[in-house]
Structure formats: structure tokens, C-alpha cells
Amino acid sequence: MKYKNIIFDYGNVIGKFDGRYMMEQFCDSDADCDLLCSVIYEKWGELDKGTIDYDAYENECILRLPDRLAGAAHAFFRGWPQYITPKEDTIRFIGELTGRNIPVYLLSNAPTYFADWAAGNDILKRFSGVVFSAPLKMAKPDPGIYRWLFRTYSLDPGECFFIDDLKKNVEAGRNLGMDGIVFTGDIEKVKTVIGF
Prior knowledge:
alpha/beta, Rossmann fold
């Protein structure tokens, strides 16, 4: 294999992050879903960066919504991670890598709430290192979060391969010397590229 370390994103690589689908689990109509999505996802990028507090943002959203949707909004903020659907091909691949003693790492943008929830995730227990954005107050594609990963786990970027669903995140890694691929769901393609 060409690389010593494989680095994964979480959303749409390890688990499918479908914002509309997740919201639909907490509301009864398309109209309510549209409204909840427009309010709650408005500042999701800031939650990922950790520049706004998760609980404070929940309260802000509830105040901006009709009273009848307060319960749905609260339930969403406390329950959405369970509706991230595992991508079984990726999970099998992680098992194959760790079975060959190839270290795997996580580098993912996510709010603090998800970072806390994922700490108990069986899949992530296989990882040699886990980095979520919000606790660090920076998010991909900020070069700082990549450097934090490399420094914290003593990784040489040239020995790492990054799998992320967003081109800008893969490119940011390349700019720092880490090869990667924009993940479209095809694990066999990933295996070919890394020489697995």
C-alpha cells in the first residue's frame, strides 16, 4: 500500500448525513420540515466551527420558530445523530484496514454535540485518533485543523491519505502535502487508488 495512515471524514463517508431526511424524523409535514430546516441549518457551519454554543443556538432557534414547533426543534437538537445512516462499505473497509494494522484517523467537521455523541461510537473505537472541528474552534478546509491532526498524532502528511466527500477539503489537505480522494461512495475506487 502507498500510505501508512488513512484519514476519514465522517459525514457522507462513514455515515450518510442527509439534513432533510434527519429533519423529517421530527416533524409531521413538508411545510414544517421546510421551516425547521431553514431556521436550524442556517448557522450549522458555525456550529461545526464551534464559534457558537450548541445549547444557546438551540434556544435561539426555538425562539425564532412558532411555539408549536418548539418540541420538534428540541427533539431534533437532542436526537439527530441517531439518523445518520451507517455506510456499510466504508465500515467494512475500516475493519479491513485495522485488521492489517493500518492506522485510521478521523478528521471531521461536526458540532460539539455530535463529537460528544460519537465518543461512544463503536466504529470510532477502532481509530488511532479522532479529531472533530467544533471542540477545536476551527473547521475544514482551514489548514489549522489539518496541522493540528498531523502535530497531535505525529503524522507525516506525505504518508497519509484523506477520504472526504468535499473537494475543497481534499484540496486543503493536498496543499499541505496529504494526498486524498473526493469520496462518491465507491470504496473499490478508494482501494485501487491507495493500492490496498
